Amino acid sequence: MADVFDRLVGQTRAADLLRQYVRHPVHAYLVVGPDGSNLRDTAIAMAAALQCPEHGCGRCEVCRLVLSGADTDVTIVERAGLSWRVDELREAERLSRRRPLGDGYQIVILEDVQLTVTGTAPSAPALLKTLEEPPPRTVFVLTADETPPELDTIVSRCLEIRLNALTDDDVAAIVMADGVDEPAARAAAAAANGDIRRARILARDDALVRRAAQWRAVPERFDGSPAGATRIVEEIVRALDEAVAPLVALQQDEATRRSAEARELGLRAGSRRDLEAAFKREQRRFRTDELRFGVRVLTEVYRRRLHDALEDEVGARSTDRVRAAMDAIGALGEANRRLSTPLDENLLLYDLMLSLSSM
Ligand SMILES: [Zn+2]
To answer: How far is the CA of 46 from the centre of ligand 1 (A)?
Structure first.
């Protein structure tokens, strides 16, 4: 019989475990999986299965409410910055203390909890306190893309579920299930690095191939001068602006569908301002992912150069080429690391171009 866990493509093993776990709920679950491995879908499916009298049939009113984001007893706590702040976790604690309005649980979903141990003021102690002695009808569903040792005390309070990284085939299959044709789905999956939502957006984006080509051409087109660096940075930033457009279209579609669903179920739609703020955050994350994609494409170019230089006969010239390619790969690695910190796109790209020009 189909249920809410069937929609978790590529996660058969985790889905089987979850079906058992939700029949005997505990206070806190931690779903761990690489970025984009449908962590959010898993958390929402779990919430539906916990609320549903049939453990997540996917068809009843209760399941539909949770899956459409309209169950007021299920909250995804939002984060404003790059790491979790203490006041945001206090808000999560306040929510967790509410009595559920329905017959099920008060479910609090907190994503990316690995971000409670990063930043200048780690907020993990506040999260730990929140997880201590929750009311009997409260369930926390946490997600994380990794569990560093600093997270151990939090992990020890949760029942942990591990998701697989999705293969490009899994991601392509998910995108094709939305009605996208196979070539577009495959191209999007290849550029999405296992991230389903990104693949869905890229599948709507005709310019994806052109953007990849633009990154690939940087070493040939860049003349090494500061003016040349500025020109290339401007081009890349313009392409980023274009790349976000399909996401904005998707967000608008989703907002329209959600408010129609809420109307159908006789509920008030959520605050427009909260929604806009969440959209903006997602757009910022998307730009960063897009930059990561570009850095990966460019790294591939220098890897090939390195490979070719190593294949060639040994000589002073080929040694220079090996060193240049390795330095470029190092500079790209550094740029990739900076993408995980608060960043100024223009500055990061300009620095990257200048370090490539000195090679
Ligand atoms: Zn149900």
So the answer is: 11
Taking the centre of ligand 1 as the mean of its atom positions, its distance from the CA of residue 1, in whole angstroms, is 12
Q: How far apart are CA 19 and CA 5, in angstroms?
A: 8
At 167 the three-state DSSP class reads coil
Average of per-residue pLDDT across 110-120: 88
pLDDT of residue 314: 66
**Cβ contacts of residue 85 below 8 Å, gap of 6+?**
79, 121, 123
Nearest by Cα to 63 from 151, 112, 2: 2
Inform me whether the pLDDT recorded for 191 exceeds 60. yes
Higher-scoring residue by pLDDT: 358, 143: 143
Q: Which residue has the tokens 């990104």?
A: 198
pTM given for the model = 0.68
What are 334-351's pLDDT values in tens digits? 999 888 887 789 999 999
Structure tokens at 300: 């591939």
How many Cβ atoms sit within 10 Å of the Cβ of residue 16? 11
Alpha helices in the chain (DSSP H): 12-21, 39-51, 61-67, 86-96, 124-131, 152-155, 168-177, 182-192, 196-202, 208-216, 218-221, 226-264, 272-311, 316-338, 345-357
CATH architecture of 4-165: 3-Layer(aba) Sandwich (3.40)
For residue 180, report the distance from its CA to the centre of ligand 1, in Å: 29
Residue 206, pLDDT score:
79
| Integer Cα distance of 63 and 347 in angstroms | 47
Q: Is the pLDDT of residue 359 over 60?
A: no
CA of 47 to the centre of ligand 1 (A): 11
Among 211, 209, 184, which Cα is nearest to 199's? 184
Flag whether pLDDT at 2 surpasses 80. Answer: yes
User: 4 C-alpha vs ligand 1 centroid, how far in Å?
Assistant: 8
